[in-house]
Structure formats: structure tokens, C-alpha cells
Amino acid sequence: VGCDRSKNLVDICGEKHFQAFVCDALSVPIRSGSCDACISIAVIHHFATAERRLATIRELARLLRPGGTALIYVWAMEQEYKNQKSKYLKEKNGSKNKEKEMNTGPAQSDQGPDNSSQDSAWSDQLHNGLKDDSCGAKPVVDFRLPIHTNRTSFHSQDLLVPWHLKGGTKKKEERVDTVLFPGGSKESELCPVFHRYYHVFCEGELEAACRSLDCVRVQKSYYDQGNWCVILEKL
């Protein structure tokens, strides 16, 4: 059984004859202790406070039976780990076809916002702040969030990632940023750009949040292609 905040994505699951329903990760309408296993891929990094992120982990644990397990994936601050760049960074100079084949981004089910990497227009909007010695992040020092330049390293843990809606239509009253793709062909047209919130996790942050709950035990914590991952067991 699957669930998602997006009705459109749930409808796609229905068309493919999968069982899925719309809900919020903070309140899943399933009885406590009724699941043998739960998977949360590229979800928790969209919650904007530490309290809400912890609440989603607690809700995930609530669904599990004793001895049940959960797998969590979140986008990592460290896109270069142990002298190895993630596929997300490596795709910056790769061909479009290769990127589509690799199909990677911030976890497999939450793809990078735009494989065309046409985000340089926002690179000058990153805001400088005091250095966070814990993981090299720069905290936001005013009400504005920095806008990430796609296929580059992160400079802040809390940021907005441009999402290019290719082939989309825009109503006159809609006020969204636009970007012009190069080329001069029929495909070179203005496309609306939306911004999605992300909190990218530093090493140990997800594991520490999980360990703060007395109802679960961390079985394993590891790094996987630009993501921090944890496997939990319900006590």
C-alpha cells in the first residue's frame, strides 16, 4: 500500500492498478502496529522544522508492529563523500540521454528537478552567512531561503530547489519565474519554474533523530549516492 501528498501521483498509481491513497506523512490513516515494513524515500527532507521531521519518523514507527522495520532515505548535504562525487554531481556535464538512463537525483523516487541544469540564473541569489562548523553549511541569516543551482554542491541545509515544468501552461495571473532554454528551435520556449523546499541532512543528523525515539532501534545507517539512509527496527 502506498501513500502520497500528491493526488496526481496517487492517481497515476491507480491507473497502474497499485493500491495508494492521499495522506500526510504526519498523520497516516493506518492502525498502529499493522505494518511489517515501511519505506520513506525522499519525503522527510521536505519538512521545514526539526520537530516536524522528527514527528514524521515517529509516525512511521507507529505504523510498525514490534520487530517491524523501516527504511528512510533523505537528501545529503555531502554530495561528495569519501572523495567520491555523487551521481547527482557527476551528471552536471553528462549528456541528457545518459542522465535519463541513470535516473538519479535526491533518492531514486524523488528525481532531480531538471536534468537540463539550466539553473545558473539563480546562482547569484545564494546568501552568505556564518559558517556552521558542524557540516560546513551556511545558515540562512534572513527570511529568504537560498535558491540552489542544480547539479552543484550545497551551501545551505535549508534551501529552495528550482523545478522546471516542461511543457506546462501558465495562466496570465500566475506569477512564477521563467527560464528560456537555448537552441532556437520550437522547444525553446518559456517554461514556468517552481521552487521546492528541501532540508538536506548532514552526516549523523538523521541517525541522531532516530536514536532520540525510545520506540525504535537503529539497525543500520549508511550513505548511498548523495543520500543518508537509516534502517529502523520497532521495539
Automatic annotation (TrEMBL):
GO MF, any single term: tRNA binding
GO cellular component: cytoplasm; nucleus
Listed GO biological process terms: tRNA methylation; tRNA wobble uridine modification
Top-rank taxon, per record: Eukaryota
Record-linked Pfam families: Methyltransf_11
UniProt keyword annotations, A-Z: Methyltransferase, Transferase
InterPro entries cross-referenced by the UniProt entry: AlkB_tRNA_MeTrf/Diox, Methyltransf_11, SAM-dependent_MTases_sf
Annotated Polar residues bias: 105-123
Composition skew (Basic and acidic residues), residue ranges: 86-102
Signal peptide from the UniProt entry: none
Region feature Disordered, mapped onto this chain: 86-123
SUPFAM superfamilies hit by this protein: S-adenosyl-L-methionine-dependent methyltransferases
Residue span, Methyltransferase type domain: 1-72
Protein name: ALKB8 protein
